[in-house]
Specification:
This protein is of the alpha/beta class. It has a single domain (3-290), classed as Homocysteine-binding-like domain (TIM Barrel, Alpha-Beta Barrel). 43% of the residues lie in helices and 15% in strands. The strands form 3 sheets. The chain has an 8-stranded parallel β-sheet. β4, α8 and β5 (168-172) form a beta-alpha-beta unit. The structure holds zinc ion. Zinc ion binds next to loops.
Length: 292
């Protein structure tokens, strides 16, 4: 399905939900590289995409969140970067078979820019350029840069992705400030800085994902909409995180998630999907509410 056409249809659009949660449910072990499944268990990835499309998602995001060189290096898979990203797009296109637009997903490197870390801005841009190119060459219809917390890393990724000529959605993750009605990323970036920088770098869609549940995402979306005339997208988690035995869980029910996420559409967002803890059932309930 053509991404541009979808965007111009004037209709509110549903994106898919979490990939990670679904992989774990299907047996991905701790310490395993989620993106390696694009090569080793492509039928599993295809089944997850299909479940989201059947639940009503009009766009799906490839299983390439950690498909950049520094992340793949953790698993000694850096030499497979290109094939891992290409395969992911092929699987998503096959699952879609024209039913949903395929967005190539890009996440953070897990590394810091100088002077905090050892990477230069040029190195970051080259890392994101390579991943964007693999995704674009394989047929992704747009690129989404997600879960960023450092605005300079976001900028490097957006600039690299824009050079593929595909539409680019730029997304950062915010948390609510303690005792204040404001939001910052864990690297201290505020909403205005994010929106301005994403626009400057050529992003076509401004997005917020992860970090928090639909209630806070709604407030962040309201702020974004006041700052930009670009289309706005949101992928909230299934509620606030809960911690048990050193692990993080998201437990908001599909019904509750959908009723809260529907308000994000009401506030003016064009696209809403789900992040951590969301399942095809969360997306199905949201889709039903939207199309009521
Ligand atoms: Zn998330």
């Amino acid at each position: 399905m053509k991404f541009d056409k979808l965007l111009k249809s004037g209709k509110k659009l549903i994106c898919d939900g979490a990939m990670g949660t679904q992989l774990i449910e299907r047996g991905l072990g701790a310490g395993e590289c989620p993106e390696l499944w694009n090569i080793e268990k492509p039928e599993m990835i295809k089944a997850i995409h299909s479940a989201y499309i059947e639940a009503g998602a009009q766009m799906i995001i490839t299983n390439t969140f950690g498909g950049n060189l520094p992340k793949l290096k953790n698993y000694n898979l850096q030499d497979k970067a290109d094939v891992i990203n290409r395969k992911a797009v092929e699987i998503a296109l096959a699952a879609s078979s024209g039913r949903a637009a395929v967005l190539g997903g890009i996440g953070p490197t897990g590394q810091f820019l100088e002077p905090l870390g050892t990477y230069s801005k040029e190195e970051f841009r080259e890392i994101f350029h390579r991943q964007s190119k693999s995704l674009a060459d394989a047929g992704a219809e747009a690129i989404i840069i997600e879960t960023m917390t450092d605005v300079n890393e976001l900028a490097a990724a957006v600039e690299a992705a824009v050079s593929t000529k595909l539409p680019v959605a730029a997304s950062m993750s915010f948390a609510k400030d303690i005792n204040r009605d404001d939001y910052h990323t864990i690297m201290g970036v505020d909403v205005k800085t994010f929106v301005n920088r994403a626009e400057e770098c050529g992003a076509g869609i401004i997005c917020v994902n992860c970090g928090t549940g639909p209630q806070d995402i709604l407030k962040i979306v309201e702020r974004i909409i006041a700052l930009t005339s670009l289309p706005v997208m949101a992928e909230p988690n299934a509620g606030l995180p809960q911690y048990k035995n050193g692990q993080t869980f998201y437990r908001q029910s599909p019904e509750e998630f959908a009723s809260e996420a529907a308000l994000i559409f009401k506030a003016g967002a064009l696209i809403v999907g789900g992040c951590c803890g969301t399942t095809p059932e969360h997306i199905r309930k949201l889709s039903v509410l939207l199309n009521k």
